[in-house]
Amino acid sequence: MNSNMSISENLKNIKNSLPEHITLVAVSKTKPIADIQEAYDAGQRIFGENKIQEMVDKHHEMPKDIKWQMIGHLQRNKVKYMAHFVDLIHGVDSFKTLKEIDKQAKKHDRIINCLLQAKIAEEDSKFGLPFTTIEEILASEEFIALKNIKVVGLMGMSTFTDDTEQIKNEFSNLNSFFITLSNQYKTLNTLSIGMSGDYPLAIDCGSTMVRIGSAIFGSRQLTN
Ligand SMILES: *Cc1c(COP(=O)(O)O)cnc(C)c1O
Question: Is residue 223 part of a domain?
Fold first, then answer.
């Protein structure tokens, strides 16, 4: 990616390269309002943030037709701050969190769409649920009783490595699991895999939603 290109040019190039069925989440974490506005003016409406407070502040300042998605690890005690507007929560990795989202959504008379984060990376630092736990959650009575959340799919993050074979294996495993589940549960239609460094591979492996930050907005100061 040419670093001299503008946000709107980066966005246009990426959008043109994506198959039509792929949803693009523009990851704007750490980026200022002016950068988000440039992407908005170029037609982008779905933005991803990884800190609840930062997303709340940006939601407050930006046009109200933006769909704000939470892609980061969730602090349960902060779910209440975004419950009235968040469009999709990607990183749900415990039943406790799902229950909290349901409780907060209920207060606003909403149904919040969620993705369960599956553990696919080797390293311990990556959050996520084992596939068996995801199956147990979806089949449980307690889950079925939650009326203010809707699980619409799965999210995953690959190991941070240059080994494309490994990344491909991790994405493919998740996709196979996703296909099996989505045959069983008709509400599951979203597979959120792929970031700036690996999204073409993720799309080859069945992604329906990519989360792209630095390839649109340039590199970030902080390493998150
Ligand atoms: C930061 C982040 C992204 C985007 O990363 P880039 O490499 O900048 O595209 C995607 N997903 C999650 C969960 C992130 O935290």
Answer: no
